[in-house]
Amino acid sequence: MRYLAERASEFLRTAEYQMSNGFHSLAAFSLERSLQLFLKAKLLAMGVEYPRTHSVRRLLEMLSEVSEEGQKGVARSLLQRYLLELGVLEDAYITSRYVAREFRREEVERLKGVVEEVMRNVA
After folding, report:
1. What's the CATH code of the domain at 42?
2. Tally of helices (H runs) and strands (E runs) in the chain
3. pTM of this prediction?
4. 22-39: pLDDT as tens digits
C-alpha cells in the first residue's frame, strides 16, 4: 500500500515536470498512472484487493462501494462530476501504449486539476 502511494506521488511529480517541458501526452499518461496507483493504495488500505484493471472509473466506483457511509457520497459525486475527464485519463493510458494521440496543454492542466481534487477528497 505504501509503495503504491509513493509511486502515485512520484508519477504526479513526473507529470508536473513533463507539463513544464511541453510533454503533454506523457504528462497525461503520468497523471493517469498517478491516480490509478493512488486509488489502488486506498483500496488496499481499506482491506480490499483491487481487480486487475486500469480503469480509474472502476476503481473509484469500488471505493464508493466499500467506503464508510460519509465517504460513499464523496466518491460517487467525484465520479459523476468528472466522468468525462476520468474517461480521458483512461484513454491517455491506452493511447500512450497503442495509438498516437496528442494532448494539449489545456487538456492536461484540466486533467491535473481533476486528479488533485480526487486525491484531496477521497479518504
Report:
1. 1.20.120.330
2. 6, 0
3. 0.91
4. 999 999 999 999 999 999
